[in-house]
Amino acid sequence: KVADLAFCIQLQSKKLGPHTMLGTSSQLCAKSSTFHRPVYRLRASLARGNRLVVRASTLDKNSIVATADKAQASANLGEIRSLLDKWLSAVQSRDAKAVTALYAPVTFLLPTLWNDVCTTHEQIERYFNFFCGLQPVGRVDECNTRMLAHDTASNAGVYTFNLVRDGEAQEVQARYSFTYKQYDGEWLIIDHHSSQQPNDSLLASTAPSDDPLSLM
What we know:
By secondary structure, this protein is α+β, with helices and mostly antiparallel strands. Helices cover about 30% and strands about 40% of the residues. Strand 3 (about 40-45) and strand 4 (about 50-55) form a beta hairpin. The protein starts with 6 loop residues before the first strand and ends in a 10-residue tail after the last helix.
């Protein structure tokens, strides 16, 4: 976590002279308020590993907080990406209850292979009882994550499932979007939309022309 990172801040100033401070983000935020005026603006950049190196130029005392927020957001994105792997592992375990437990108490699921919208855990579990019975093995083809707030995030992209239906192997590629919210430190799904990719013939008949004049 960011609060556990060691910060190295080097200030080059005629008035203050060269200074180096080490500490956690919370300690440095406290120290930054004690600087003599004018307060110096620090421009921060992440270096390799977990060490944050800050180069000095003119700044206000809130810069360290802003930099810490950026580092935290980066760490959270990695965690959000891992939630999809966690969901896939639960699906591939064929345990519908384990999959359902990843969804928040108030949630929505638009399933890949059902037309119904699932709005309760009972409906979600019923769908995954059906889906897990198809022996799904999934892979992620494209993944795009972003933080919407400190406790809300999204992941959208494409995944593919190899299924066995009526004894025959099938491959289903779908576009997905997950929205997550953090409850007592645990990320849960509050919205999940999954729909099969349109077939090529449909795309060919509906895709707009590259020529903008053709749309007029």
